[in-house]
Amino acid sequence: MSFIAQAENVTKDYPVGQVMVPALRGVSLAIEPGEFVSIVGASGSGKSTLLHILGGLTPPTTGRVWIEGVEYGSISDAGRTALRRKSIGIVFQKFNLLPTLDARGNIEIAREIAGRRAHPSDGDAAHMQRLIELLGIGNRLDHRPTQLSGGEQQRVAIARALINQPRLLLADEPTGNLDSKNSDAVLGVMAELNRTLGQTILMITHNVAAAAIGHRTLHMRDGLIVPA
Question: How many other CB atoms are found less than 10 A from the CB of residue 209?
Fold first, then answer.
């Protein structure tokens, strides 16, 4: 089976003064199409660093990473950017919505960045409508971020991440800024996206209960994937 994402013996060191501090110490994992994988660990365990490496946002110190069979190390910076735009959507703990745009504008700007907004196909329009329905934001599209609840803002951010139909959604503590009610709503939406659309998801969280909505949970500690 071809994996959506695969990492092999990935390490990452950061300079702190004159000392190199390891954030990842040799991590390997593989994610199959349609999987919902959760990575749980305390702050400083290395889970965010791993997500950023899988997303092509930062390179590993050593090791190799493949996205849809393409190794990051084998392509140029421009190639990595193009691969990330085509294959990966990312949702962060902070919603990162543009305050001057309404919800619709915040979603559609991702199409513009990918060069798809000028000539949307019927399939693009149908996909956006389905996302809006699944996320339950149809009556909030003309509202700016300050007029939305935290849960609504995160659902808009999820729609933005998925509007270009990436094969892999990376979610970095997606409920970290939400209360329990909105957290449950966002987690439910992500589970429904996986179940209904077959969306492959990798979510990192410090919350064991949140991690349990995935098909499998990996545990990280001190830059390593460890037994539960």
Answer: 12
